[in-house]
Amino acid sequence: MVNTFNFKLNNINKVTQPVDRHDIRLTYNWGLIESKDINQKNINKVKKIWEKACNDAGKSWLIFDRAMWVWGSLFN
Question: What would the 3-class secondary structure string for 3-42 be?
Answer without folding.
Answer: HHHCCCCCCHHHCCCCCCHHHHHHHHHCCCCCCCCCCHHH
